[in-house]
Amino acid sequence: MDQQERLRHLVLNTHPEDLKIGLTLGLWRTFAHPDVARQLASAGGLINDPAGRASATGDALLGLMEEGLDSPASKPVLARLQGIHDGIDPDLMRFVLTAFTLPPIRFIDQYGWRPLTDTERNDYLSFASGLARELGIQPPAGDVAEWTRWADAYEQQHFGPSCHSLSLWQFAGAPLAARRLPRPLRRPLQRSVANVAGALLDARVRSALGLAAPSATGKHATAALLRLRGWVIRRRQTS
C-alpha cells in the first residue's frame, strides 16, 4: 500500500474509534488556550450543539485523511478550513494543528488495541504537515518528538484559565466523553464520566480548565477501563 492507502486503512479499519477519541482529546486541549477558547465560545457551536460541532470537526479531518488532500472530495473541505482560519496568527494555527495531531498518536500508542507502527506514525505526521501547508502555515519541523517539544514550549507560554475555557468544558467536556464510551458503560459511568475525562488530560490542561487532579485510584481505574477496551478490540480485530 502507498501512503494514502495506509491512511485510509488507518481511518476505516485499523483505528477508527481510537482516532475519534484522540481528536476529542485534541479538541479539549484547544480549550486551554484563552484565545482559542474565546473564539470557540463566541461561535456558539460547541455550547449549543457540542456533539454535532465536535463530530463535524472530527469528520472533516478524518475525511481528509481518508480521501487525501489532493482528491476532488477534499477541495471544498480545504477551502472551508482556509476561509475559517484566514488571518489567524500562524503560531496559533500551528498550535491547533499539533493539538489535533499529537493526542491521537499518544492515545493510540498508550490505549489502542495496538500502537501505531513507525510507518503509520510517519504517515500521520506527513498528512498533518501537508494539511498545514494547504492552510498556508509552516508545520513544526522533525518527527513526533520535535512536534511535541514545539507544542510543549508554546503551551507553557500561552495556556491559562479563562471564563470561556470553563464554559466550553462544562458543555463539551463530560457530554462528549460520554459519547466515546461503549454504550453498555454509559449509564453505569454517567456520574463519573467527567472524572474519567479529566484523568486523560495532563496537569497543564486541567489547570486551565479548572479541573482537580484525579486521584491515584481514578487514574488507575481509567487506565484499566481503556486497556480492557483495547483488549476487547484486539480480540475482535484478530479473530
Oligomer: single chain
Please state the overall shape, judged from the principal axes of the Cα atoms.
globular
Count of strand segments: 0
> What is the structural class?
mainly alpha
Task: Give unreliable regions as ranges.
Answer: none
- Beta percentage is under 5%
Instruction: Give the CA-CA distance, first to last residue.
Output: 23 Å
| Proportion in helices | over 70%
Question: Largest sheet, described in full?
Answer: none
Order of helices and strands: HHHHHHHHHHHHHHHH
Rg, please?
17 Å
Structural domain count = 1
Number of helices, where a helix is a run of at least 4 consecutive DSSP H or I residues = 16
